[in-house]
Automatic annotation (TrEMBL):
Keywords: 4Fe-4S, Iron, Iron-sulfur, Metal-binding, Molybdenum, Oxidoreductase. Its cofactor is [4Fe-4S] cluster; Mo-bis(molybdopterin guanine dinucleotide). Residues 754-790 are annotated as: Disordered. This is Molybdopterin-dependent oxidoreductase alpha subunit. InterPro entries: Asp_de-COase-like_dom_sf, MopB_CT_YdeP, MoPterin_dinucl-bd_dom, Mopterin_OxRdtase, Mopterin_OxRdtse_a_bac, Prok_molybdopt-oxidoreductase, YdeP_MopB.
Length: 790
């Protein structure tokens, strides 16, 4: 099992200094062809991100307008994601007869995914050790019966991940609220929640304000805590275009990620044979959690530059007309001390001053950011400080400027727009009440961390996951597993097998569904679903492939039938009509959700439409009615002597909780996921040697020892004091209560750990993934080797 995590043939070569080019094309095709037939690969690739085609089920990066679209409007990873879904492998009832729940739980994330697409509904009955087939009707009766038997609707929680399209998302929240709960945890709670919190408070909208054209036009783009070469590959095309037009880019990262350095466009001649485009004009090799200090220092420098040459640095008219709180903010930020900034960032004063000079030379500035910022304890104040920085020079509400939180899942932003939010504003609930004639529950529901706590404490007993892999996406794996196992019922609407299916409540159900690439035919004919990307563009997606099994139901069908079975038929919420024709759901959305008037007509345009962001018209729906300057207490992550700050991140070859192989091409790591990247000077200081085996032990105030066993130390150019290892293998180290202030997002990028040498390497992996070395009995299809050089 060459590619399985934990293999002994780990190889490490120097990290790459450029991204994509020809190897990316080859890797995408190799992976795709291993999963499925050449015909299906052709269908997926010719249709992905095309006008009447399939929206890429990968990340939320937007497409070009249809006129400008390339025939290959996808990236290496997009091709892998869609063909991972289009796989011709199948999980059938025979598989579940052979493998007990305990065996499923013991299989690695990789192996489970490799089994292929789920084909029929399965149930694990109370006390049983195995899943067995169940008919759809019986499954719905079982679920509805359990829901009706709960003492309170708040004993149920409904999790969503951002793969779900708008129609299913709207139905899910409608069902949950008609049933009586706002317990709608979602993957956003662990992702861009900090962005939503900070932007909502300061600008009045929890979304980004820029478009692709703004990115092309900006004079300066910051890319902070983000690895676009892997996670949003086509963002590199946009950055390249910005450079071509004379823009500048500053990358802020704890690692020199390949995609931030140089980009070779795989679909242009110069990208294939040339040296590619240099991306970052300046790279700030920042310490983990140092970003707040960096922006505070930059803001202080801007105020001082204005003092020195009044009227030339700050955008006074903008500040006067559109903002509040400037004076208090300015008084506060002037106290920022250089010594603390240099300690927190690990940068030199000269480096920060160089950034400042660039900022002064650039009129239009955009800040892009992702998980390196949001998953830190002080993620929310960091984003608020970035907003301060933009406000000082009027970098909002004009072309080429603004905020750009780069979203993860393809429809994670749309799901929020549709009301998948445990803290949805009252005006949304009022609109639901007007449209459907019931009174939704008031008050806030549970988010992801809150749901785990409630399950642990016996307060949530029914868990339904729609897409996603809750048990592997969430922190504190051992605590979360116990919490799920203590439920009366856990059920998952999924396309593929994952670890969440092996961590069961007393009763468990697997409800297999269509993926985005599958043709979806209902009583009224072929259906489309709609999605919203990271830049608020809404458009249709049309599945093209023959579904993985005739027994699959769409997410909409599953939710509509479950709702009707649970709540009974009602003229006010015509669930059957919704299932028969998704356009009827969109009609309702157009009346409930602002910005969706004429929804059905507008998605007929292959380009779709852009939701208006009021910020771009200087309309700020904040407490003061203006864009708000905020005062943020200075904060950074400090590890005690002998410790490092660990971040858990993605390799180049995984989709969130699902590794596609044990390789991380750009970082030069092959055949091993149980590795920890450490700065060579830190290694020397800690007395560690290359490829030494260590346990990662997280230190947290609750005194509980959290341990991930048997990792190998890889010397890597991480910034001093900052280590990196892969998610989800290290989620066991993130304490449930270690969350970002205000947003409650787990601090997956800021875990204080010590590296403890392993005395007896043969002792095996941590209990949490006892057989991650792929020893699960007889379930694995052979995997081709990946020794080929990249
Ligand atoms: N191929 C692929 N694409 C994906 C995904 C995937 O799993 N695979 N997942 C999707 C999802 S849901 C999301 S949310 C996005 C995630 O996209 P990213 O946010 O790019 O994902 P991560 O791998 O978590 O990388 C975090 C980056 O932040 C840096 N970083 C860590 N800590 C700090 C810090 O304190 N300061 C700074 N400045 N940098 C820091 C890390 O070195 C790394 O480059 O990607 C989406 N796209
Ligand atoms: N330590 C650590 N933890 C993290 C993170 C981190 O960086 N570090 N990142 C966090 C982030 S940003 C996120 S977004 C979450 C991701 O958390 P999730 O979104 O919960 O996880 P995924 O791995 O994307 O879920 C994969 C599963 O989704 C199902 N699926 C795929 N497509 C479909 C579909 O079309 N329909 C349905 N019904 N099911 C489908 C498949 O069964 C597949 O196994 O993880 C978070 N957890
Ligand atoms: S950049 Fe994201 S959305 Fe675009 S093709 Fe790649 S994975 Fe898909
Ligand atoms: Mo995410």
């Amino acid at each position: 099992m060459k590619d399985e995590p934990g293999d002994d043939d780990l190889t490490v070569t120097p990290p790459k200094t450029w991204a994509t080019g020809l190897p990316a094309v080859r890797h995408a095709l190799e992976y795709s062809l291993r999963e499925t037939s050449p015909r299906r690969v052709l269908t997926t690739l010719l249709n992905v991100n095309q006008g009447k085609g399939i929206d890429c089920p990968g990340c939320a990066w937007p497409e070009e307008s249809p006129k400008k679209r390339h025939i290959n409007e996808y990236c290496e990873n997009g091709a892998k994601h869609i063909n991972d879904e289009a796989t011709t492998r199948r999980v059938d009832r025979e598989f579940f007869r052979r493998h007990s729940v305990a065996e499923l739980n013991a299989m690695s994330d990789f192996l489970l995914n490799q089994q292929g697409r789920l084909t029929e509904p399965m149930v694990k009955r109370s006390g049983a050790q195995y899943y067995e087939p169940i008919g759809w009707d019986e499954a719905f009766d079982l679920l509805a019966g359990e829901l009706r038997a709960l003492a309170s609707p708040d004993e149920a929680a409904f999790y969503t991940s951002g793969r779900v399209g708008n129609e299913a998302a709207f139905l899910l929240q409608l069902f949950a609220r008609a049933y009586g709960t706002n317990n709608l945890p979602d993957c956003s709670n662990m992702c861009h929640e900090s962005s939503g919190s900070a932007l909502m408070e300061t600008l009045g909208v929890g979304k980004g304000s820029v478009s692709l054209d703004d990115l092309y036009e900006a004079d300066l783009i910051f890319v902070v805590g983000q690895n676009p070469g892997t996670n949003h590959p086509r963002m590199l095309t946009a950055l390249e275009e910005n450079k071509r037009r004379g823009g500048h880019i500053i990358a802020v990262n704890t690692l020199p990620e390949a995609g931030l350095m140089r980009f070779k466009h795989p679909q242009r001649p110069r990208g294939i044979i040339g040296r590619g485009t240099k991306i970052a004009d300046q790279f700030l090799h920042i310490r983990a959690g140092g970003d707040l200090a960096l922006f505070q220092a930059l803001n202080r420098l801007l105020l001082e530059a204005e003092d020195a040459d009044p009227g030339t640095v700050l955008d006074r008219p903008f500040i006067e007309a559109h903002t509040s709180g400037f004076d208090e903010f300015a008084r506060h930020i002037r106290k920022t001390g250089w010594d603390e900034v240099l300690t927190a960032t690990g940068l030199t004063r000269a480096e920060i001053e160089q950034v400042h000079e660039r900022v002064l030379a650039c009129g239009k500035v955009i800040i892009c950011w992702a998980m390196g910022v949001t998953q830190q304890r002080h993620g929310v104040p960091t984003i608020r400080e970035m907003v301060n920085f933009l406000l000082l020079r009027g970098n909002l509400g004009k072309p080429g400027a603004g905020v750009c939180p780069v979203r993860g899942h393809s429809n994670v932003q749309g799901d929020r727009t549709m009301g998948i939010w445990e803290r949805v504003p009252q005006r949304f609930l009022d609109a639901l009440e007007r449209e459907f004639g019931f009174t939704p529950p008031a008050g806030h529901g549970l988010d992801s961390v809150g749901t785990i706590r409630a399950m642990r404490d016996g307060k949530v007993k029914f868990f339904l996951g729609v897409a996603g892999n809750f048990v592997r996406a969430t922190p504190d794996s051992e605590v979360t597993e116990r919490a799920l196992r203590s439920c009366r019922l856990t059920a998952h609407i999924s396309t593929k097998l994952n670890r969440s299916h092996g961590v069961c409540g007393d009763i468990a159900l697997i409800l297999p569904t269509l993926g985005r690439s599958d043709r979806d035919v209902q009583a009224s004919g072929e259906q489309v679903v709609t999605v919203e990307d990271s830049m608020s563009m809404v458009h249709a997606s049309r599945g093209k492939l023959r579904p993985a099994s005739p027994q699959l139901l769409s997410e909409v069908a599953i939710l509509a039938r479950l709702a009707r079975r649970t709540l009974g038929a009602s003229p006010d919420i015509p669930w059957e009509e919704f299932e028969a024709d998704y356009a009827t759901i969109r009609d309702r959305i157009s009346r409930v959700v602002p910005g969706f008037t004429d929804y059905n007509a507008r998605i007929a345009d292959p380009a779709g439409f852009r939701l208006r962001n009021p910020v771009n018209d200087h309309e700020y729906r904040t407490a003061t009615g203006k864009a708000m300057f905020t005062r943020n207490a200075f904060d950074f992550l400090e590890a005690p002597p002998g410790h490092l700050v660990l971040q858990s991140l993605r390799s180049h070859d995984q989709w969130n909780t699902i590794p596609y192989s044990a390789n991380d091409r750009y970082r030069g790591i092959r055949h091993g996921r149980h590795i920890v990247m450490v700065n060579p000077e830190d290694m020397a200081e800690l007395g560690l040697t290359e490829l030494q085996r260590v346990d990662l032990v997280s230190s947290w105030t609750d005194g509980v020892e959290r341990r991930a066993r048997n990792f190998r130390v890889v010397p890597y150019p991480t910034s001093r004091g900052s280590a990196a290892a892969y998610y989800p293998e290290t989620n066991v180290l993130v304490p449930l209560d270690s969350v970002a202030e205000k947003s409650n997002c787990p601090t997956s990028k800021g875990v204080v750990v010590r590296l403890e040498p392993v005395a007896d390497p043969s002792a095996g992996r941590s209990a949490e993934h006892g057989t991650d070395d792929g020893t699960a009995p007889g379930a694995a299809p052979a995997r081709p080797d990946e020794h080929a050089p990249a």
